[in-house]
Fold Probable cytosol aminopeptidase.
Amino acid sequence: MNVTTSSNLDITKYNGIIIPCFEGQQPSLETLPQQTATYLKANKFEGKYESNALFSIPLEETLVQYLFVGLGKKEELTVEKAMCAIGSAVKTLSKKELASVAVSFTEIEESILTEHFVLSVVKACSLACYAFDKFMEKEKEKQKIETLTYILSQTHIQAVKKGVSIAEDITLARLLVDEPANLMKPKNVVEVATRVCQKAGIEMKVFEKEEIEKMNMNAFLSVAKGSDEEPRLIVMKYNGNPESDEIVALVGKGLTYDSGGYSIKPTNSMITMKSDMGGSAAVIGAMSAIAKEAPKINVVGIIATCENMISGRAYLPGDVLTSMSGKTIEIVNTDAEGRLTLADAITYAIQKEHATKIVDICTLTGAVVVALGEDYAGVITREDSLWEDIQASAKRATESIWRMPIDKNFEKKNKSTIADIKNSGGRWGGCSSAGAFVGAFTEGKPWIHIDIAGSAYLESEKPYFTAGATGSGVHLLTELVKHWAK
Ligand code: BES
Ligand code: MN
Ligand code: ZN
């Protein structure tokens, strides 16, 4: 899809025109066809939030679709509300097989059009055009929006470009997550990461099974053991500040499929488990976005990718293994596999990459989905200042996060009677005990844990998202890294 801007609305150029309007403020109709006022009246359109009016007006041989969108009262508008209203309008028109669509900002005054506002709305509009329809013969043939034009003053061109750019990296993550597990194996994650790193000029290393064995990453290897697909450790390095010893590690959970292993999942819980590499998709998308923005900071992206399967070689409940850190782990549930892969990936980050700050991102627990639903990612950190950092970043990224607790009691839940730690603290407080397990491998380094099990993958659509992958975390990680670069 092409994105352009224009400072005035030439109605002869588009098949679809979206006009967001405030409640109680007459849309200025000078450049629009005469019939518009009549149609608006017939549709009882008053600009109320979540209301709209869709009608077509003939122009020469064709029909132009007009979609007026209510923004609600001006003083109650937020960036998120604008994203939902305008993004869902784009989603509506994207299904109408129109080649060229305009989104007009002409009814919104300049004082509201901050860089953050324009960037966020443009991002939402780009995300709204996403369709994972490559396996639907009829759908994929349909006309997609070829050109999306924003009607606004040319002073906003940079904001538009930035919105389009971050949406591209979010889309990259969504495509990775939506790809079914029969087509997205660890080796395929490597392929995509390689392509992204080459394009972005990021240094990259991939470790195969033998090298992973040499590093004694037995927690990671145990999870991978049951699968015919070999695990891979992917390391992506963005060196934006060579003079500094500070290195931020972004560690993403990369289970290309999670059957649960011998602690097997029920059928229905298994259906969406291709999405269990949402954390690694977020890291790949963020590394791409970070390289484009070029902040003065060093970042290493780390992904331990594998499949959690059942076979004669699979790990078993009751097993005890020695992780890369030397800590022994009792396996009480083979479905608590993500934390095992993260434990070794974090030890790798500290021992081999000398990471000084650690951020892990993962579809880690069903518990976080029960607690927070699909809107919020659960965040755990021991330091208030880090919570403030990620809160500020979440606001810039328009991603919702909620802080979950961590304390001695959650650490106690993971106590084993035969090993240093066990891999599940049980059902209650599952997001926090899982976080405490991961935190046991961070060696006291500044650490933020982001559980995106709910936000990475939607059961049903949202205003500017279809059901399926969201790319949760891509923008958040990017803003966090930029925040730390300041
Ligand atoms: N990948 C799942 C978590 C998950 C659940 C992601 C739902 C997305 C949607 C994770 O590996 C898992 O199975 N967690 C278990 C942990 C339990 C066995 C301690 C869970 O949450 O049930
Ligand atoms: Mn699992
Ligand atoms: Zn999992």
